[in-house]
Write a structure and sequence with these properties.
Length: about 450
């Protein structure tokens, strides 16, 4: 049962989970969430039809009705759940993972995430203990439900005038294809703009450098002002500037602020994850944004944004959350708003790289992965080493550790989905950054056998 994680159910299909598991997840969702109606969507992976059929069979055998929205982006499922008042939904997807993976993202009313602590762990327990799955007296019905137009109409409220900018767009053969051309028209230069769940051109994960090479080449070839790339289920989006340089997704939280805080005047709280650059909060503060920091992952971030009633938020992984969108994330919505900002910059005679240059004040290591058995011991050792050397200015311990010092900070945390310890560091100079990263590598390699 290695497919149950902090945020969702995900793994290699027929290795980490199979259709029997999918059936049981579907069967137990109505009981877990006290409902007799469940929205179900799916991405384009080769195995998604089989997983879908198993989930639907489980739900209907439990006596609940399925409202099947068909092929869908993950945010489309969030929209259907919250907009129409459902108490449960399942999106069948493995998001940005390779083609052999699949999984399920479960939500409850108002599109609130059901993570491991909020119910997935309960389902896993029921499956592990062999809880029976008898067919209900009344078998549930399956209703086809078309939400495409309503979700499109919602998105189009945020569409600006993009006629003055050149856009390069990589749709990753994924679910962004359902909407991109209806939103952005024929003016962008598109690549990989056919749905293909084998992902023949690159894995649908824009965080891996090799997966954005084709987009970078397209930006150079077309002279685009910006490049846009979505992940497989279109809940994440990332960008390259007009020089084809990849922009760290946390910095785009600051770009979103130019719309919400500056143009719309919505002063208030903004959420970032524990790995985000200090530069984001420093840029947003004069615009009226007050930064809050929280755990990594939608199951945590969306709930925290709702709790604080934040205007918007984002993560280093390219998720962006909006109060306007049920405190949930949407790659398409985020890209529309950021392209609005790029269009405004162009009218001012400025480029995206110039804006990012104003935001980005620090040298950043990016996330560095260490494969380590004793994750907890290694985390404590790194924290203790640095805190013994220097007086800290801030300390957070809710997702690994983030410790800030006058000239630098670091976060070290265990991955919730992979066998890694993740380290990220930011400093005022390249020399200081190299010194701190080197010290961590030495400690983790020599004392913990890190690979």
């Amino acid at each position: 049962m290695g497919a149950f994680h902090a945020y969702d159910i995900r793994g290699i299909y027929n290795v980490d989970f199979d259709k029997e598991t999918a059936y049981k997840v579907g069967y137990f969702i109505p009981e877990l969430l006290s409902t007799d109606k469940v929205v179900v969507g799916r991405d384009c992976r080769v195995s998604s039809d089989e997983v879908h059929d198993a989930v639907v069979a489980g739900i209907t055998d439990a006596g609940a009705d399925v409202y099947d929205i068909g092929l869908s982006t993950t945010p489309m499922v969030y929209f259907a759940t919250a907009n129409y008042g459902f108490k449960a939904s399942v999106q069948i997807t493995a998001s940005h993972n390779p083609a052999e993976y699949n999984g399920m993202k479960v939500s409850t009313e108002n599109a609130r995430a059901v993570g491991y602590d909020a119910g997935l762990g309960t389902i896993k327990g029921w499956i592990d203990e062999g809880k029976p799955t008898p067919a209900a007296e009344r078998k549930g019905e399956v209703h086809s439900m078309d939400v495409h137009k309503d979700y499109l109409d919602f998105l189009l409220k945020y569409r600006g005038d993009y006629s003055g900018i050149r856009i390069a767009m990589d749709l990753s053969n994924g679910m962004a294809n359902l909407y991109a051309k209806e939103i952005f028209g024929d003016s962008p230069a598109y690549i990989f703009d056919e749905i293909d769940g084998r992902f023949p051109n690159h894995e649908p994960n824009p965080l891996i450098a090799k997966n954005i090479v084709a987009l970078q080449e397209l930006v150079r070839k077309t002279g685009a002002d910006v490049g846009v790339i979505y992940d497989g289920d279109a809940d994440r989006v990332m960008f390259v500037d007009e020089n084809a340089r990849f922009i760290s997704p946390d910095l785009m939280i600051a770009v979103l602020g130019t719309y919400f805080l500056k143009e719309r005047g919505e002063k208030g709280l903004v959420l970032q994850d524990i790995r985000s650059s200090k530069a984001v909060g420093e840029y947003l503060a004069p615009l009226g944004g007050e930064m809050r920091t929280w755990k990594v992952g939608r199951a945590f971030a969306a709930e925290k944004l709702r709790e604080i009633d934040g205007v918007f938020g984002g993560e280093l992984a390219g998720h962006y959350y909006f109060r306007d969108f049920f405190y949930s994330d949407s790659g398409l919505l985020a890209s529309m708003i950021i392209l609005n900002a790029v269009a405004s910059l162009k009218k001012e005679g400025r480029t995206l790289s110039q804006l990012i240059g104003e935001i980005e004040k620090y040298q950043n290591s990016g996330e560095i992965n260490f494969r380590i058995e004793d994750k907890a011991g290694a985390m404590d050792a790194v924290r203790d080493m640095f805190m013994a050397q220097e007086k800290h200015t801030a300390y957070m311990d809710f997702d690994g550790y983030r410790v800030e010092f006058p000239q630098w900070w670091f976060n070290i945390r265990p991955s919730n989905t992979e066998p890694y310890l993740r380290f990220i560091c930011e400093a005022t100079s390249k020399e200081l950054l190299d010194e701190k990263v080197g010290a961590v590598r030495k400690l983790l390699t020599e004392k913990f056998g890190a690979k």
